[in-house]
Amino acid sequence: MTDLYATLAEHVERGAVPGLVAAVARGGVTEVEVLGSTGYPGAQGARPMTRDTLFRITSMTKPVVAAAALSLVEDGTLGLDDAVDDLLPELADRRVLRDPQGPLDDTVAAERPITVEDVLSFRAGLGFDLDVGFPTSPLFAAAAELGLAIGPPVPPSPHSPDDWLRRLGTLPLLAQPGARWLYDTCADVLGVLVARAGGATLPDVLAERVLTPLGMSDTAFHVEGADVDRLAAGWTDGPDGTPVPLQDGGAWTRPPAFPSGSAGLVSTVDDYVRFATALAAGELLAPATVARMVTDRLTGPQHGSVLLGDRGWGLGLAVDPGGRYGWDGGFGTTWLTDPGSGTVAVLLTQRTFSGPVFELISAFRAAV
């Protein structure tokens, strides 16, 4: 992987990120590149990156939770066409805003219930895109007051899953169920749905259905003990665009009040490659289920999201026009599976998305 190493090293040397871990799996062989440090020069506590460094994978949590949900579909616990009302009564009898940026009391009745597939395909009328007043519209202002943590994963919601969903249920939908793709919030709803359907907490259901069967021993909603030292330092951009330490209050070093199905997991490159390769091989879910998961569910005008660009959305992950699938994380992580070449590629860094990080990820995708 000389060419890939050179590409990644160039971006680390330019300071796009202080370090990274990348893996490309193809034909039963996984090659890993480890570059740089967990911190920029002079940063307190910076350590060399290692293959087992832990990263906050943020939105790369979404496909893992979606896989757990689809395992519940496979065993008949859930049905894609089922209304969520029985398991999530807080979301029954919805009202829908006439104008996504309008007042909260200007609503109409939902035309139908929200289904399990609506939640997985992010078409439940919950979430955001950059053309619906996020984060300043009345609805998002109300969500912030309720402590729902819609959007960035820092700070996390302080509420229990039941309280979080109860609060969410006091707000109207932004769109009719099934009508348009909206980002993020459906994944947190899916986490609550998976927990209730599985009869346990979301961490326990994920462990039972995904993490333990695949041997993903480093993937969890928090780290503790000696593993805290393996967690990479987080970085974000200051007012002048230079990287500064991420102030997350140690959110990933203690059990969260609300295990976020949207952005809550930490993981390693080997764990995530194991998840992605097992998914592609039909070892985690049946091949027919995987095929449904990675088929674009969006139709016509549902495409063109500001956040998705030219990509579509399957069940818990993005699908591009060429049939490749995967997703990214807001702290500079990305995963791509190319069924045509049998390639799985994972890049983990820990700087929130910015111009240099976008350039790094684009270069990584082009290189693999």
Automatic annotation (TrEMBL):
Record-annotated Beta-lactamase-related domain positions = 7-358
Organism whose genome encodes this protein: Pseudonocardia benzenivorans
Domain of life of the organism encoding this protein: Bacteria
Q: Which SUPFAM superfamilies match?
A: beta-lactamase/transpeptidase-like (SSF56601)
Pfam families listed in its UniProt record? Beta-lactamase
| Residues passing through the membrane, by range | none
Against InterPro entries, the record matches this protein to:
Beta-lactam-related (IPR001466), Beta-lactam/transpept-like (IPR012338), Diverse_Enzym_Activities (IPR050789)
Q: What is this protein called?
A: Serine hydrolase domain-containing protein
- Under the GO molecular function aspect, what terms does this record hold? hydrolase activity
Taxonomic classification? Bacteria, Bacillati, Actinomycetota, Actinomycetes, Pseudonocardiales
